[in-house]
Specification:
Blueprint (H helix, E strand, L loop, with lengths): L3 H5 L7 E2 L9 H12 L6 E6 L6 H14 L2 E9 L3 H6 L6 H13 L3 E7 L7 H12 L5 E5 L3 E2 L3 H7 L8 H14 L5 E4 L9 E3 L6 H14 L17 H7 L2
Parallel strand pairs: 1-2, 2-3, 3-4, 4-5, 5-7
Antiparallel strand pairs: 6-8
Helix pairs in contact: 2-3, 6-8, 8-9
Length: 252
Amino acid sequence: MAHIGPKYKAHKFIPYFQNFTNTYAEPRQFALWAEEACRQSHVVGIDVSTRPDCIHEVYLDILKELAARYHVDVTVELGLQSSNVHTLGKIERHHTAAEFIDAALRVGRYGFDLCAHVIADLPWDDRMDVEETAKLISVLPVTQVKIHSLYIVKGSAMDRQYAAGEFSLLDMEEYVERVLLMIRYMRPDIVFQRLVGRAPESSTVTVNWGRAWWVVRDRIEKELVSRDIWQGDRCSYMDGSAVRHFIQKEGV
């Protein structure tokens, strides 16, 4: 806060528990961390990043109580990455889409904001998987989305697999196409916090095809304009889409 405040002339703050699984702790310890953040001057919200299989009502109750006591908003961020169970197994997520659905419904019942993280260019996903991921997110109480491109951390299991030729990376053009698909199938009121991620080159084998993140973002925005497409223009699959014509015919 001491650094960001003067630099950006900021007066209100949202402490962000970002790295790692921030609910993977005993509830008493989690409560101490969360309350310390909420107690800081000029804090208006708290953001907790975690895994779908680490959501339990005990932790959500803690956040609800702190939100009421300190008058702060709560956002929970969950890593989905893909709706394809086979892909999730390949990247060793150790959860499936079912755990994400369970966690999203639980968070939604508390009225918290919910941000889903997805990777658009996982090499084991095809475009149908990408569409299904957008649909899955849209039918759940998700309020925000962060889309990332795949980057490989040096020394990781994926680094060794990539070096051994066990999979190939998709190119930037395919990434752009998949992000466009996600945007088109995503519910119109969902906020996109990010269309491309960032990672330090010093600790990664590859990230964003060696391009600056804003170059990838600008390319996505250019395609949206040039093709005259927009968020949710293919979001017609909810609310009984197969019987909608009956409703319209009878003017209900």
